[in-house]
Design a protein that fits this description.
2 domains; five-stranded mixed β-sheet; Helix Hairpins; alpha/beta; elongated
């Protein structure tokens, strides 16, 4: 099984979600199924079928989270340094096409949130920047076309 890279914050968030699902959501759905069963014929009981579907989704998510947490390779960016872009780095770039600055933090797949400037390590922009240094220009192939980005800063926050 392959390791799943994630930041300390990402691991904590996944762990909290897993605990919430197992300690709150799972018992609630078990209760909802029991209540729906009391309404009679299960073949035509929409409430029962909806609760069972929800239970399936919750159990699948718990299994997925437990798998990722067991394979987690937690990387603490605050202990790293240097001008080379690696997992966990916060990278400031200058977009040569739009002449705008952007800041991206390279995180694990489950932590990515583009609106917060967090990009997955497997995204095209992160893959283009990994191993590059301050001053390098990278070409990023995106659905909207190719973009030229100059790396102007690497921070370890």
């Amino acid at each position: 099984m392959s390791k799943v890279p994630m930041t300390v914050e990402g691991h904590l968030a996944l762990d909290e979600e897993c605990k919430f699902l197992t300690s709150v959501e799972r018992p609630e759905i078990i209760t909802a199924i029991a209540v729906a069963r009391e309404h009679g014929d299960l073949k035509e009981n929409a409430e029962y079928h909806a609760a069972k579907d929800r239970q399936g989704m919750i159990e699948a998510r718990i299994k997925d989270l437990e798998s990722k947490l067991s394979r987690a390779q937690i990387i603490d960016a605050t202990t790293m340094g240097g001008d080379t872009v690696k997992f966990g780095a916060t990278v400031t770039v200058f977009d040569e096409d739009t002449e705008e600055e952007h800041t991206y933090k390279i995180v694990g797949e489950d932590e990515a949130e583009v609106s917060q400037g967090k990009v997955s390590v497997t995204s095209p922009i992160a893959r283009a920047m990994i191993t590059k240094e301050v001053g390098d220009v990278v070409e990023v192939r995106a659905p909207a076309g190719t973009r030229s980005l100059e790396i102007i800063g690497v921070a370890w926050v």
